[in-house]
Every structure is written in structure tokens, then in C-alpha cells.
Amino acid sequence: MIDNVIAIDGPAASGKSTIAQKVSETLSIPYISTGNMYRALTWYALQKGLDLNNPDEKAMKDLLATAELTYAKAGDKFEIRLNKQEMGPLIRAPEVTSHVSNLAAMPCVREWMLDKQRSLAKLGLIVMEGRDIGTVIFPGSKNKFFLTASPMVRAKRRLAQSGETTDGSTIESVAREIEERDRIDTTRKTAPLRKADDALLIDSSDMTIEEVVNKIISCVK
Ligand code: CDP
Residue 184: CB partners within 8 Å, gap ≥ 6? Predict the structure, then answer.
């Protein structure tokens, strides 16, 4: 049993990042977004001109051989870097968001991430969020949560995050994008998005951020 990883999984725009960050602040422990790792790699692949609408395993493997992904401590937070470049807002760009699920479905990418994500447990007590933390990365974790919210609530939340959607986006168009990403994430063969049997399901549609954070903290064993 692993007791130092608080694993939070769930679909796109379900509020995982906000909640995971608050849990990390409250407990003064590192917060790791594995989505940001996939986003950083997507940013890099797009920079290098890879066609992520038709991703090719060989081209991706060559790219992975040239990519170094690190987390650097910046004050209280951890900053993600790709080949030493700080990612910051680059990885939240709509162009990255619309391609990330295709990249994340590739077995060679998931294999490349596995050890990197597991090795972060050496930081001590951490909160890690993503899609497969409770099922694949740390299946032995005692503290697993699966966060969801209704499609409308999720679309509204994403639309409210400035800079994350293209100009002219509507609730309907954002909802469609989220649905498409969830479809790819849940139906892929390798490490699909699903709730671990022993994860606690939290539907945050009608809950405040504080209520969700308190629930998670009170359940951490
Ligand atoms: O913040 P948002 O809900 O939009 O998603 P994210 O957590 O930043 O993750 C972006 C994408 O990365 C997801 O849609 C997945 O395709 C992929 N991902 C994954 O496959 N496995 C993870 N553990 C985390 C993210």
C-alpha cells in the first residue's frame, strides 16, 4: 500500500487542478499535474511540426528521445520545464488542448511518462492529478479520488478560465470540445480514463471548492 500519494483523477475541466492545488496549499505538500506533463510534450511536438491529428509512433519515439521533462522547485510551487524552457501559460493554449488527447493515447508516450511520474513519489507526501493515477501510476495508493461534474458545469468552468478557449467560443462549443477529449481519453487502449474501483467518487457540480477540498482532506488516511 502507498500512503504518500493523494491521487485525484477525473475528466476534462472537472476542477481537478483547482482542487489539487488547494489540497497541496492546505497540507503544504507538492502538487503535480500530470496533465501538464502531457501538455508540455504536446507543445513540443507541435513546435517540431508533428502531425498530431495523425500521430506516427516512429516520429513520436524520435521526438521523445530529444525531450527532457523536469519539475523545478520555484518557491512553494513546482514549475514544469521542457528541455529547460519554462512552460508557464504556453501549455494552456487552445491549440495544445485540442491535440493533447491524441498524443496522450499513444502507448510510447504513456510508457515514457510512467517512470517519471512514479519517481515523483520520492518527494514525500504529494498530491498528483490526472486520468490514470489511481488505476495505473499508483494503483496501490490508499488515497484515491475521482472528481466529476455535469457537462454543463464543466463547460462553464472552462469558459471562465481566460485564455484557455478560442475567441468566439460558446458554452456549446466548449462542451463539444470537452466531450470529444473525454471520448478519446475514455476509449483509448492504454490507461483509459476510468474510476479505480477503490476511488471515492465526488460529484462537484453543486459543491463549493472549499467543500470538495475539505472532503478530500478529511478522507486522507
Ligand atoms: O485541465 P484539463 O482538465 O483540461 O486536462 P489536463 O488534466 O490538463 O489533461 C490534458 C489531457 O492530458 C487529457 O485530456 C488527457 O488526454 C491527457 N492526460 C492523460 O492522458 N493522462 C493523465 N494522467 C493526465 C492527462
Answer: 101, 102, 105
For every residue of 149-188, DSSP letters joined together read --HHHHHHHHHHSTTSS-TT--HHHHHHHHHHHHHHHHH-
| Number of folded domains that form the chain | 1
Helix (H, G, I), strand (E, B) or coil at 76: coil
Tell me how far the alpha carbon of residue 61 lies from the centroid of ligand 1, in angstroms.
Answer: 20
pLDDT tens by residue, 50-97: 999 999 999 999 999 999 999 888 877 888 999 999 999 999 999 999
Range of the domain at 130: 2-219
Look up the pTM and report it. Answer: 0.95
Contact between residue 71 and residue 32 where contact means Cβ atoms under 8 Å apart: yes
Give, using CA atoms, the residue closest to atom 14 of ligand 1: 101
Binding pocket residue ranges, ligand 1, CB within 6 Å? 12-13, 17, 34-35, 38-39, 100-101, 104, 130-132, 181, 185
Alpha-carbon distance 98 to 39, whole Å? 10
Domain containing 34 — which CATH number? Answer: 3.40.50.300
pLDDT in tens, 144-172: 999 999 999 999 999 988 788 888 889 99
